[in-house]
Amino acid sequence: MAPKNGKALVVGAGISGIRAALDLAEYGYGVTLIDTSPNIGGILSQLDYQFPTDSCGMCKMLPLFNRDEGSQYCLRKGLFHENIEILLSTDLISVEGEAGQFKATVRQHLNWVDPKLCTGCGYCADVCPVDIPDKFNENIGTHKAVYLPVPHAIPNPYIIDFASCTRCGACIKACPTDAIKLPQDKRNSFHILVVDDELVMRDSLKEWLTEERFSVDMAASGSEALDMLKAKPYDLMLLDIMMPGMDGVEVLQKAKENFADLNVIMMTAYATVETAVEAMKIGAMDYLVKPFDPDALTPMILRIFQDADGAAEDRQIEVGALVLCSGTGFFDPGSGKNPFGYKTYPNVVTSLEFERMISGTGPCQGKLLRPFDGKPVKKAAWIQCVGSRDLQTDADFCTGICCMFAIKEAVIAKKTSDQNIETTIFYMDMRTYGKTFQRYRDQAKNIYGVNFARERIHSVIQDMATGDLLIKSVDVSGNSKEDRFDLLVLAVGQRPAEGMSKLAELAELALNEWGFGKTGPFSLAKTSREGILLGGSLTGHKDIGDLLIQASSAAVNASRFIHSKGGDLSTEHTLYHPPSGVMKEIPKILIVICTCGNRFLQLADSDHIAGQLKADPLIDKVVFSEKLCTDQGLGNLVELVKEITPNRLLIAACLPYVYKLKAKKLGNEIGLDPALIEIVDINTGYSHLLNPNACYEENKTEILDEESSSASTHHLLSIIETGIAKLKWADASETPKVSVCQKTLVVGGGIAGMTAALAIADHGFEVDLVEQSEQLGGNLNWLKRTLDGHSANELLKNTLESVKKHPKINIHTQSEVINSAGEAGNFHTEVKDPQNQIHTIEHGVTILATGGSQAPTQSYCYGTNPAIITQKELEIKLSDNTIDPEKLHSVVMIQCVDSREEPRNYCSRVCCANALKHALCIKDKNPNVSIYILYRDLMAYGFYEAYYTQARKAGIVFIQYSTDDKPLVEIENNELSLSVFEPILGKRLQIETDIVVLATGIVPNISQNLADMFGVSLDQDGFFQQAESKWRPVDSLKEGVFACGLVHSPRNIAETIATAEAAAQRALGIISHKYLTGSRITASVHHSNCALCEQCINACPYGARTVDYDNERIFVNPGICQGCGTCAAVCPNSASVLDGFIKQQMLAIIDVATG
Amino acid sequence: MTVTAKIDVKNQDISESIRKLLEDILKTEIIQAILVSQHLPMKKMVMPTLVTDPDHLDGIDPLAPAFPVNAATIAARLTRKPIGEKIAAVLRPCEIRAFIELVKLNQAKRGNIILISVDCPGAFQNKDYLKFAGQNPKEATLRFYKKVMDGNAVEVEGVELATACKACEYPVSENADIQIGLYGMKTDESILVKAQTEAGDHILKQINLSATNEPAARQTAINSLITKRSSFRDEMFLKTTETTNSLEKISSFFASCVNCYNCRVACPVCYCKECVFVTDAFNHDSFQYISWAKKKGIIKMPTDTLFYHLTRLTHMSTACVGCGQCSNACPNDIPIMELFRTIAHVTQKAFDYQAGKSIEQKPPLSIFCKDEFQEVVGIND
């Protein structure tokens, strides 16, 4: 399928960017995915483990349909999709225009290693004399100045760290493909002018920059600077803002009048950051906040230097929409007062450093050893909220993920050390607000024995002799404690990413008060600028599942803009298919062997190889080509194929993953079906054969002795023969496909159902929206406003209006689903209307949005006294004025009623925010009222934290209770009495109150019967069971059925809308296609051999197989089949086959590989 | 209360007592036909017959040490599609276990068949039986029965039981609807008949039987037999492992194989419609043979002999019930059963599976357990 006319730019290739890019690409748009770093994957490329599976599942994001458009392997290694162009080391420079017609300029920073030529052989690193800290491993350990940014990426070209490279040139000689070009160092002709009134500042800057070999001049005032600019051309000016006389901004203005191209970086104290931001509007490139150290300064200067040096390429691309997912940064715990001794005490690490320590591919090979002395870690502690929920570091927010992150790390530590480690997490509130989080926490405690200590750390001191860390802490009741640990892991809080303000500036985005991207109202993706959407941790950290939901929500909104501007009018085109006779022809195989410079010839006897291969009568010709990876090499290949006209082509080169897409293009060019082009990797063969350290050194002989040469010839030959074996049996018949009914059924007409329906209908596809009750709207019919002050009323009104007048949405109220059958692409659902008539709706996908309700309760004497009400009732009573805040003297709110303990052991996520909302609302109207919120862990996650702070400032009293000593509510003679144990005072308090408000949480509205009809599972609490809570957050295991809203999980309105938009995006991925195309690698059935034992049906993990009893046949849905081959393994009869890996191929491959 | 009854034996003719019982069962009209082995007119060998007329049961000889085919395949053929009738089948315990496997493989249906089993005294190899039976097979059966029924003898008049039977630890079927008991009974006087399922009970209730209690001696006798056979079996495993535990040894084990595939035809659980080894999958290009030969200097022809047996082991060792028909069918006396049981014992143990034990236990490869064999797949370590 060719990209449609519509195009999108996704900035940031972390998991959010990848999700958004894949979503848009699956829909059929062309996507440009850029990332500042030289690799994709963002933070997740460094994380081996994610809870709750405690393993990685990133690849589950890959498309399930039309799989041949991309590659299907480890996503941490790389991403390839026909519709996605990936540009690494690339920044967004400017965005002009408006939604539908943006002109974006991106700047790709070129490296001295040409990624097109680099094969990742690593000889350069073997000879590089410079060692630098290993950034991928969070600076634990070192690598050379020429290095792999991510050790496991594919393709994996080396890059050179400009700052530390000495230009000795050793790598140039070592490189077998001439991929490295080191320019002359022109730093001494790069002139920098430092302008600051403080001598100390000028001197230290001069010292740093001179050390970096730049030419530096200094000016002590603005006017002096302007004079110097006139006297000599400068490439860069570092300009202080606060200077006596002419201030920095004025200098900037004047300098720019005469020297428009001059690069200027502003230097500012924290207080004048806003001025610096203003300065950027009049032409400054960036700013630095004082005090800064060389680590912050040097990379920025180097980047400007390289850009000026021509090491960057600007490109303008026209896109309909942008999705910004450029991520976030982290608090540096070593900055400021550094109370935990980070970087001072070796055994204190950050959570990310810990992640690399425990990684099997990390610098410690997965063994937990103390950095101080390399001894095993026997006792580790995690400290939460370092740089979060901390007014002293200006972080009145919660980072949202650290609690679960820490629990996971503690559990992994337990698992990998066979329980030979003691783990303690020091925390304030354990924010387990996701659907499965609370149980994961309980499991960590009860099964793995992780200690949870609700204590404040007041000091950390290292025992200088042993390296042990002495941690002094104070518990809730004020008791001091002291303990010794081997390792301390700091849960570092989020900070806006470097360059965030610059990005906001150029994209005209609003930021929240801490500098994170701001969206909304009621959207996690929409910004104030149409056509520019936000995703990912750029708007604050979230759990992976939530991030992907948000990314898909951003994608669907981007897609809406593109669509509404006529972006997807291009028609889909089909793959090239060969003349039908080709499969009947006797194979005529052309073998092209890339000699990778002259490496191959050094290793193997090419005449012998050619001779051996030619002995096979099906081999038409064996050709050696010097550098197949270059444009010229590829061009020669095309000519050759046109001349020889083989009907099969074998390329022996390297990196088959990369070549796969090249082969596709090549196939189209030379008229050969890509299925008849096979690529084998002889590069890995080289690496096995050569001891890299022994070769390419000046004095070593490069020719192997006879014996090893014969062994390597044999080895390379057998690799090539595996390709021939596969190619001989290759099948180029048409990829199987199933037709799609391009309509959607949405079950449930609350805000989630309506949002999903609108998102799909806005793309021009028909939607049937079925609602059980008389009116649409669900919970928004009573829920009036949110904690952040937005009106839910307005949202409901607008949504209803759009839904009702939408020509593509058919509304069925008072209707009920009574039966459904079918699978992705083709469902038939029977719906009973108010007149009890049954209609059958045909649809290609189903979205379940049946909602949720406030959980009923009998706890705390609810129902026996009108003064005991629920949060929902309070909301209603405050809205209709049946409760007048001004008449209240005292209010008690009890959180977690029947929640977060078995059997309803989950957090309902909205209750704490709800309590804060109502408490602040009442307090606002009546400052004299006493409000007590009795809670267990206050789930003011993310930016809700500020409201928690605000509530405490407003005098609202928070009392923590535990499940073994819950608050006591009693009614005697119609008198309400309430008591609770207050842990700080250590006393039981009697509280007089007018009302008691219970937060009972949310229960889902879906019957097992309805779930069964659509073939979806429910979790133990009755919520929709996701296919995978992190990586396929709105999918069910049954293809084509998605869920959103409260039936999916408890969520606030904006989060609910995000799930709805995500579900819509996933649905669009299917119904936007007329056919669901499988892959060349799809299972099929040889019916004549099939004994109908149905083992394959049981074995298929995707439910792609059904038995057709009428025709006595097994049917495989090629759209659903993922080509895993389990069915072929279980079938003894060879009736179940995996096309693309058929028996003949596999046996032949094994034969040559072992022969 | 399920029926447990005794049937009188007159003139030591157990066969006649069983014939009478089968006649009664057929007459209840709950079932319409019985699959049972009989001596066919003028022939000595017993072969499965399908009987609808009660008068045609005279040729049965259920204790004859003859086991020419495993009739599970035939029972499967009779039940695979609904026929609107109910049938009964008199099967050996190993046949019933094979039948259970076929039910799980969807090649047979359990619902419309009543399984009847007689305690199994074992059988000879086919060739041996024909010699032993002589001119009066029924009389030969009596001689055989008298010698082996106490469970101690494994040979009669110099003829040994088939190795499969000597190593069989399932002489009594757990899954028969109706079990006819001999072990631990005073079989000169009476034999036991008992219902082991509701369906079996339903039938026996229609017949006039004299109720009894299962004598305690019966279980003791069975247990002691199982112990003996198990120890023989374990010894067999050791010997077989010793003769097959390298590529060279296993090649020589199968050296006399002529690729006739009789073992596969005889195997009751080898259920493929068309075996891959009779397709052209291993009919390689002429070039291929030459190039193999060039590489190694010598190759055995045909090339797929060992591969055939290894494939069958891969496919069938989880379902192997050890009936021994493969050895029985081999024209060149390769002890195939010994190898299959040895391997099957290990594979079935690995999956905590017992072929033929119960319908509820799913075939190992058709279920997915996320956490199994972590030491093999290397997850989470």
Structural class of chain B: alpha/beta
How many separate helices of chain A?
A: 29
In the CATH hierarchy, what is the architecture of the largest domain in chain A at level 2?
3-Layer(bba) Sandwich
What sequence of helices (H) and strands (E) makes up the elements of chain B? EHEEHEHEHHEEHEEHEHHHHHHHH
Approximately how much beta-strand content do the residues of chain B carry? 5-15%
Give the number of DSSP strands of chain B.
10
Largest interface: A-B, 29 and 25 residues
Radius of gyration of chain A from the CA trace?
32 Å
Into which percent range does the helicity of residues of chain A fall? 25-40%
Q: Your description of this structure?
A:
The complex is a heterodimer of chains A (1155) and B (381). With 1155 residues, chain A is α/β, with parallel strands linked by helices. Chain A has eight domains: 7-109 and 320-327 and 497-564, FAD/NAD(P)-binding domain, CATH 3.50.50.60; 123-174, no CATH class; 187-295, Rossmann fold (3-Layer(aba) Sandwich); 330-492, 3-Layer(bba) Sandwich (FAD/NAD(P)-binding domain); 585-728, 3-Layer(aba) Sandwich (Rossmann fold), CATH 3.40.50; 742-851 and 1005-1075, 3-Layer(bba) Sandwich (FAD/NAD(P)-binding domain); 855-1001, FAD/NAD(P)-binding domain (3-Layer(bba) Sandwich); 1078-1154, Alpha-Beta Plaits (2-Layer Sandwich), CATH 3.30.70.20. Chain A is built from 29 helices and 55 strands. A five-stranded parallel β-sheet of chain A has the order 3-2-1-16-27, covered by helices on one side. In chain A, helix 20 (751-761) packs across helix 21. The longest helix of chain A has 23 residues, at 706-728. The mean pLDDT of chain B is 92. In chain B, 40% of the residues lie in helices and 12% in strands. Chain B has helices at 14-27, 72-79, 93-104, 126-133, 137-148, 163-166, 198-204, 216-244, 247-253, 262-266, 286-296, 305-316, 325-329, 336-350, 374-377; strands at 4-8, 33-39, 46-51, 87-90, 113-118, 155-156, 159-160, 178-181, 190-195, 210-211. In chain B, the strands form two sheets. Chain B has an eight-stranded mixed β-sheet, with helices on both faces. A two-stranded antiparallel ribbon of chain B has the order 6-7. Chain B folds into two domains: 4-215; 231-377, no CATH class. Chain B contains 15 helices and ten strands. In chain B, helix 2 crosses helix 3 and helix 8 (216-244) crosses helix 14. Chain B is globular and about 75 Å long. The interface between A and B is medium-sized, with 29 and 25 residues.
